[in-house]
Amino acid sequence: MFLSDSHQPTLLTPRHYLDGNVTEREIERGFIPGWHLVGVSDEFPVDGGFRTISILGRDIILWRRGDRFVCFLNVCSHRFCALTAAVKGRFLERLRCQYHGWEYDESGQTRKIPDAPAFRPLEQGRLGLVEYPVATVGDLVFVSFHPAPETIESFLGEAHSICAERCGGDWEHVWSWEPTCDGNWKLAMEITLEGYHTVAAHEGTLGRFPLPREEAMTHLFQDDSHTGLMVGFSDSDHPEISRTSRLIRRLGRTPEYVYHHQHAFPHFGVIASDAYAIAQAIYPVGPDRHVNLYRMFVYRGHRPSWRGRLLYPGHAAGLRGFWERVFAEDRAVTSEHHRGMSSTVLPNGGLMSRREERIIHFQAYVLGISSDAVETAGSKPRV
Ligand code: FES
Ligand SMILES: [Fe+2]
Fold it and tell me: Best label site of 177, 184, 264, 377, fewest CB within 10 Å?
């Protein structure tokens, strides 16, 4: 069921997608207070494992210590060199800066400073690393750049229970992808907020399935920064669906036949069905580029039948290949969307159908965090 009775004008103007000041305001007001997906715990299988990543202008290092994770700015307090250039690796007891060898413990405090007397007088505890809060949900690992962020539960909203249930445990992490993509980050979010594009932009993948009927769809606007979609389906909708649900039963799960897509603004979403879950986060890199971070899980079952066990590897590889193609198609069309948006002349238009109404919810959120960075002008074309 859709919530609006008619189409609606788009709320954002092209400037919202092209102006670097808007991006900065969005980062400051929308992203910094939130939580950011940075990986999955099995990507750090051993104590001391680390990964580095650059998001939202911050180079960070995420470090496993026993069963917990700590996160620091990947910048040394001595003279601000990156602690390590490696994307991943292992630091056993201490992080060690690659430049002069300063060492830090898991609380971020200096533990060893070569030739320390030369730095006299040293004030204890003043030269620690910048630390960021870390939270895990299922096997997903999130960091925040806010010193006192809201709880991860309230940030994720309904996505929290989906991730807790389906991103870990009996759901196997099968795929990680972090491409840097052309186009404004909001266009990458918007393509995830409607399924109307699937017929044309995903002709050989999602477009093989018919657009769901309105009666099968439920749009949810939970609050200003959370929206969800549920689509009911059945075995009779498509032979691939009935094949998959047979296998899901063999793996030990009774299918619920619901496709979920839940968003936490500004930049997080999770897709989930009986067979798989995909967590996605989108990070701006300036106004015209973004990083798309994906982590995919496939239901492997608790006590699968022997036939389920036999069929699972091909099933998981098929799902992974399918969604890899889908996201590559999204990526290509998002870049073209940005190109169109950058034109100095635009036709009349800027309409959202009822099927696309969740984008209006997102755009209203964006206006709330960036309204004073650009004057809103409805959907007037630029000539
Ligand atoms: S900059 Fe890190 S030890 Fe000198
Ligand atoms: Fe898509």
Answer: 377
144 C-alpha vs ligand 1 centroid, how far in Å? 25
For a substitution probing ligand 1, which of 84, 102, 115 has the most ligand atoms within 8 Å of its CB? 102
Asked if 9 and 348 touch (Cβ cutoff 8 Å), the reply is no
Question: Which of 161, 228, 196, 199 lies closest to 3 in space, CA to CA?
Answer: 228
- Asked if residue 160 and residue 125 are part of one domain, the reply reads no
Domain count, the chain: 2
pLDDT of residue 382: 37
Quote the tokens at residue 166: 């389906």
Neighbours of 343 (CB within 10 A): 10
Structure tokens at 101: 């060898």
> What pTM was computed for the model?
0.94
Distance CA 374, CA 318 (A): 45
pLDDT of 378 higher than 60 = no
Residue in the block written with tokens 């606007």: 221
Cα–Cα distances in angstroms (integers) from residue 89 to residues 50, 76, 135, 142, 359, in the given order = 5, 18, 21, 19, 40
pLDDT digits (tens, 9 = 90+) for 252-278: 999 999 999 999 999 999 999 999 999
pLDDT for the residue 380: 40
Determine the pLDDT at residue 353. 93
Does residue 19 contact residue 13 with C-beta atoms inside 8 Å?
no
186 and 202 co-located in one domain: yes
114 and 177, same structural domain?
A: no
